[in-house]
Amino acid sequence: MGLKGFAEGGIASIIAGASTHPLDLIKVRMQLQGESHVPNPSSVQSYRPAFALSSTANISLPTTLEPPPPPRLGPLYSHLFLDTLSIGVRIIQSEGTAALFSGVSATILRQTLYSTTRMGLYDVLKHKWMDPDTNTMPLVRKIVAGLIFGAVGNPPDVAMVRMQADGRLPIEQRRNYKSVVDALSQMSKAGGCR
């Protein structure tokens, strides 16, 4: 695969990521739908662990638990399409049509960095790291290649999910990211690079 294949693969992955982004946003919102917020500190009671190393060590457990949502009835996937559609409609009604594309800049950056790099370096690493005697790649080199590509693609992926989930937060808690660069800089300022 030469430069042409590298560019074509990168462009195809960017188009695919951007065109399926609204569905990914709905998926993230559906995943976050059942999450409860942080418990009120006044409803948390301290307990001393059974095997404490010091007498001052305590752990906290909530005193009240929220009941789980009732189970859905019907076939396994009967409501999946309607749920996806209703969440999409709810996002459009409450936040506008453009909200379906919140975080798309992170998707484009992720596809540019991760997929394009993966497609472009695949043949290079395959030929350079292949053992000529056995015509296989050693496991350690496969792991290193996976770590390289994961390190390249992970920061934009985290920024994308945070940008998608931002609209679900109460207005006073929203981060209101302007772009993927803003999201990455706010994330690195708040939590550092980990």
Automatic annotation (TrEMBL):
It comes from the Eukaryota. The keyword Repressor does not apply. It is found in: Membrane. The keyword Membrane applies. Keywords: Membrane, Repeat, Transmembrane, Transmembrane helix, Transport. InterPro entries: MCP_dom_sf (IPR023395), MCP_transmembrane (IPR018108), Mito_Metabolite_Transporter (IPR050391). One of its GO terms (cellular component) is membrane. It is a multi-pass membrane protein. Pfam families: Mito_carr. Solcar repeats lie at residues 4-128, 133-194. Belongs to the mitochondrial carrier (TC 2.A.29) family. This is Uncharacterized protein.
